[in-house]
TrEMBL record:
GO terms for molecular function: oxidoreductase activity. Pfam families: adh_short (PF00106). The lineage of its organism: Bacteria, Pseudomonadati, Pseudomonadota, Alphaproteobacteria, Sphingomonadales. Keywords: Oxidoreductase. InterPro entries: NAD(P)-bd_dom_sf, Sc_DH/Rdtase_CS, SDR_fam. Belongs to the short-chain dehydrogenases/reductases (SDR) family. Gene3D superfamilies: NAD(P)-binding Rossmann-like Domain. PROSITE patterns: ADH_SHORT. The keyword Amino-acid biosynthesis does not apply. This is Short-subunit dehydrogenase. CDD domains: SDR_c.
Amino acid sequence: MADKFAIVTGASTGIGFELATLAAKDGYDLLIVADENLIQSAAQDLRQFGTEVQAVEADLSTLEGVDALLAAAGGRQIDILCANAGRGLGHGFLDQAVEDWRKVIDTNITGTLYLLQKVLKPMVARNEGKVLITGSIAGYIPGAFQAVYNSSKSFIDYFSDAIRNELKESEDVTITTLKPGPVDTEFFARGDMLDTSVGQSESKSDPVDVAKDGWSALMKGEASIFSGWKTKLQGALANVTPASVLAEQHRKMAEPGSGKE
């Protein structure tokens, strides 16, 4: 058993798996979680780096799922939390089933906040710990045809800024927000967005690179990082571009069928 311990959520594939890989390479024992059985295969892959890896299949859109994850930690001190689990959803809001958009909100916001509150309290009590929260450049853009997802990421991006300020006197507890743009993961298939322009784009970021950016910023205790120069530029432009223009730009990327034009 290593003397340092990390939890990574949404770790079966994509950014979460790559973050878990970096943690294992740095000698952290791992507790990884996702809402699919593939998390067990991910754990097997991660054990090659020689640390202890425990996998939990749990639905982090529910408080019970978060409690199951924390119970699996067995009271062990959590040195790092990578709160990466998230869910996307394409199509127009009026065409989305209530249970689908609720799942996005409950995963991206409710479950994430509950987990953060549970993990941060003991970190603050001992004034030690690092948290990486996966936000998104989407949180800066009114997301036509991704309205619930983008709004959920806006909440996360700004919530992270707020609690970072609240906890600024706990100098050895750091909260870092990772803000990628479109990443080449299962996100677009799971969100039913493969027929969109952004879903079919070949310019999406590599999750390996995004995870490296996030892990480096986490280790340095940085407040936030836009992953990739295009994303940094988007973030800068979003602050000076009218919301109506941003929404129309997003529509061209995310409207169903836009990838066939």
